[in-house]
Amino acid sequence: MKSPRVVGPHDGHLAILGGTNARFVIAGDDASKRFALVEHLMQPRALAAPMHRHHREDEFSFVLEGSIGALLGDSVVIGHPSDLIFKPREQWRTFWNAGETPARVLEIISPAGFEHYFRDLGAELINGAPHPQRLAAMCARYALDMDMSSVPDLIQRFGVRFPGGPPVPR
Predict the structure, then answer these.
(1) d(CA 68, CA 97)
(2) Which residues contact 170 (CB under 8 A, 6 or more apart)?
(3) Of 26, 105, 111, 128, which is most buried by a Cβ count within 10 Å?
């Protein structure tokens, strides 16, 4: 069993993911793999990910600052500070910073394990965009379906930008 402790605002591993970063607040090993807690720091109008679907975990996004948009299946929702966005497994989804200021979200991942995807992706992104085969292998390892072809439509539809791409005029 892990010892009780205070996790400060600068503690934990930070994965740099472009317009969205992930800070490990509580790793799954600290919670007997029941859940993990990750803080996402999002630049204005940043798209966090292409459309994707998790097969093993549910995600709960608690908005701390800013406005977070989410496309959950066919439904679009906007979360504001103190709102919780529930993203169940097996549902296609994405999310983005829906505002013109930085946003922060605490993301509960249950069960734990997927938080390591952010560490792996951050390591890949150090050298630029990952090769499609490496990205496909990473997605398979984390039981994640990802639709990269969704990015242009998401950029156009929601007026967002994706890491490595130019800002979209509004």
Answers:
(1) 5
(2) 159
(3) 105
- pTM listed for this prediction: 0.89
Q: What are phi and psi of 153, to 5 degrees?
A: -65, -40
Q: Domains of the chain: which residue ranges?
A: 14-158
Tens-digit pLDDT profile for residues 99-135: 999 999 999 999 999 999 999 998 888 888 788 898 8
152: left (phi over 0), alpha (psi -120 to 50) or beta: alpha
- Euclidean distance between CA atoms 129 and 56, whole angstroms: 25
Q: DSSP letter at 111?
A: S
72 pLDDT tier (thresholds 50, 70, 90): very high
